[in-house]
Specification:
four-stranded antiparallel beta sheet; about 45% helix; 16 helices; alpha/beta; Rossmann fold; 3 domains; Alpha-Beta Plaits; elongated
């Protein structure tokens, strides 16, 4: 790109930015009576100058031409003053500092244009104890993915944590949700019983706290979850937190496959009336066959009803549950280490065939289970792309990963963000498939009153 072309593009962007500032300044003045007083002061001064000028030149032989010239000058100064006043109020106070800080890290487009700050305002979307500010930029053609890839550098330049990046005004603008550098995520957030949502047929699960808000998953919307993370990342703690909440809800049955013998699950889980544990492949295959049969039965049941497309529709309509003792139960099948269930390494021919059948049943549930209230929650720490087939993984809509290497992060999230953004010593820190980093709630089994679950 030639220097002349760069200068042309920079001139065009400068003109656009001035237009944005003027428009924003008008909005600010219209919405703020105190700023309107400034306009009145400028107009009052202009009127005073007009009166004084007329008084001074009254009776002067050259009154006509000179008076006209002075009045034109007065009008010009007034217009310039009003323009500067509007532009001042349309420019965020931190605009120039932000521009300089982004320039320092070389954050610019091919023409050398640095994104220009349009607006800065506090985030009012949801209750949070943190100070959250929104920064809206004229993106200058810099794509959202580039902002996300440069997240660490932008955070350092602006001395903030970036909670979220989103496009505005089509793709012309970018909005950053920022939190002061000293108000980041805590290393440990204790689960409180007040966080539990027991509403039915809603099935919402609280996972943890992001910089902006509580991270919640609704099984009516995202029926299946995949959790990844290396040893000690907090993966199993998060899995237990999810299952504990499900067991406190009405009409939810939980089954856990754990081929490690259930060492991570105390007797509370094994003795719970709505929770069963499976420790071998034969029992697991029998159970999965039952789930597929149940899925087909529910499919036929819903097809026989009017306007009933899923378990939510069925349970929320009193006509369908009028003669039943209770609504249909949601069925949750969880695996603490999916590699232990699906890995065929070192198995006999018969065992491999058994694993293939298990994998086929899980794939069927992943593909069809959402509508019929049958859910998968799979966890793994093995960085092996051959463990989870595409048919299973591609039908799991919500994925989270704790600290991990590039390989495991790619398997879970299809990118390396877990390796890039989760500190190597972090416990309970996760990033989800939407790019949201959160601290999972710490769940201590001894603090739970299992008699009430």
């Amino acid at each position: 790109m030639t220097n002349n072309k760069k200068a042309e593009l920079i001139s065009e962007t400068t003109l656009r930015y001035a237009g944005y500032r003027f428009s924003e300044g008008i909005k600010q003045i219209i919405s703020n009576p105190r700023k309107q007083m400034g306009v009145l002061v400028i107009l009052a001064l202009a009127l005073l100058c007009h009166v004084l000028t007329k008084h001074i030149f009254t009776g002067n032989p050259i009154e006509g031409p000179l008076n006209v010239g002075v009045q034109l000058l007065n009008a010009s100064i007034t217009l310039i003053g009003l323009l500067c006043y509007v532009l001042y109020h349309g420019t965020p106070k931190v605009a120039y500092r932000t521009h300089n800080n982004l320039s320092r890290i070389g954050f610019c487009n091919a023409a050398g244009e640095v994104p220009l700050l349009l607006r800065e305002y506090p985030y009012r979307g949801r209750a949070t104890f943190r100070q959250v500010d929104c920064l809206e930029f004229l993106a200058c053609g810099i794509d959202k993915s580039i902002w996300e890839n440069k997240k660490t550098a932008i955070e350092a330049a602006l001395n903030v944590h970036l909670a979220k990046v989103e496009e505005i005004e089509g793709k012309q603008g970018i909005r950053l949700y920022t939190v002061p550098a000293d108000q980041g995520l805590a290393d440990k957030i204790i689960w409180q019983d007040t966080m539990l949502n027991t509403q039915i047929p809603v099935c919402k699960i609280a996972l943890g706290q992001s910089l902006l808000e509580q991270v919640i998953v609704d099984l009516n919307v995202t029926p299946h979850l995949l959790i990844g993370g290396s040893t000690g990342s907090g993966k199993t703690v998060l899995l237990r937190l999810i299952l504990m909440q499900l067991l406190q809800k009405q009409n939810v049955d939980v089954t856990i496959a754990d081929f490690k013998g259930g060492v991570d699950f105390s007797a509370h889980w094994k003795n719970h009336p709505n929770c069963q544990m499976i420790f071998d492949r034969a029992t697991l295959l029998t159970y999965l066959n039952y789930l597929v049969d149940e899925l087909n039965q529910r499919k036929a049941l819903f097809a026989s009803k009017d306007d009933c497309n899923n378990i939510f529709d069925f349970n929320v309509n009193p006509l369908y549950t009028l003669n039943d003792t209770e609504p249909l139960h949601r069925i949750v099948f969880a695996v603490d280490e999916v590699a232990e269930v699906l890995d065929k390494t070192g198995l006999s021919k018969e065992e491999k065939e058994q694993v293939a059948q298990i994998e086929s049943r899980i794939a069927t549930i992943a593909r069809l289970g959402r509508a019929f209230g049958i859910h998968l929650i799979l966890a793994t720490q093995r960085p092996d792309a051959n463990i989870l087939s595409g048919q299973i993984k591609n039908n799991i809509g919500y994925r989270v990963c704790g600290r991990a290497d590039n390989v495991l992060s790619m398997i879970i999230l299809d990118n390396t963000s877990a390796a890039d953004e989760i500190p190597s010593d972090a416990q309970g820190r996760f990033i989800d498939s939407n790019g949201t980093v959160f601290q999972g709630y710490w769940f201590d089994e001894s603090s739970v009153d299992w008699g009430t679950i």
